[in-house]
Automatic annotation (TrEMBL):
Gene3D superfamilies xrefs: 3.40.630.30, 3.40.630.90
Matching PANTHER family: BLL4206 PROTEIN, SLL0310 PROTEIN
N-acetyltransferase domain boundaries: 13-145, 150-288
PROSITE patterns: GNAT
SUPFAM superfamilies: Acyl-CoA N-acyltransferases (Nat)
Record carries keyword Endoplasmic reticulum: no
Entries under Pfam families matching the protein: Acetyltransf_18, Acetyltransf_7
Molecular-function GO terms, alphabetical: acyltransferase activity, transferring groups other than amino-acyl groups
Record keywords, A-Z: Transferase
Species annotation: Vibrio viridaestus
Designated name of the protein: N-acetyltransferase
Amino acid sequence: MFGVVMKYSSHNFNIRNLLPNDLSAAHAMTLDLKWPHRLEDWQQIVSLGPSLVMEDAGKVIGTACLVPQGKFASVGLVVIANEYQGRGLGRRMMEAVMDIVTPGTNLYLTATVMGKPLYEKLGFVDYRVIEQYQTTVNVEQLRLVTVDNLELRDLTTTDISVLKRLMNVAMDMNRDDISELMVKESSSIKVLESEGLVKGFACYRPFGRGFAIGPVVAESETNALALISELLHCADGQFVRLDIDAYSLEIASYLSECGFDKVDTVSQMVKGQLPDISSSYRQYCLFTQAIG
């Protein structure tokens, strides 16, 4: 699906494959830009697919990461060092990423307000809107949401194959590798069960400045909210972030009620075909903005 990037030079800037010893420099760039990613968050995304770096005289000044997902691939952590911005280098990184993708692969990404004009020029179009919520959880502010006729419990190893299937049908993508990473890295995964069948799940895992809830996959927003509510009740005193679909009004209202702040609104964009989601399952919270 993906080619190998040969090192090339243009105006003293080289673009090449990211190597393990580049991660500290990549992480330092995002720290300088006040992005929340830990070194471990970087390690996770680069474990899922090919990544590129741009360097100037051996100094890492830019990155871009690809995460293969069947007929789709997400592009994330497109970063240009602060002192090199405004030179068109973000476009070079994106063009390099697109050069290594097999023709016919549909690309998608999460665009900041600053980055969106570039992605539009490269042929990306709006797909949906994502809202970022975060707070330090105070359990006394929470309202427990329950759903009749559904049992909420912890994930067991026998659930993993079903979890992978739900991850895939909820996005119309092959996300098996992401599912395996999710199971490995999550501190807690809750599932909804009805008559012995798993009907949804939600993950709580370390990310950024604290923890993230996501992905969350369910057949309805109410079911997704019950999963989120359960995880939040186990997160008292923790800094927690969720990236939700802007159309999830019930979830947004609940988060606001529980003291969460909406701190950002970004666009998910696609170049190529849109996902053809025919299942009743939907992903209500992202894994991360970079992975989708």
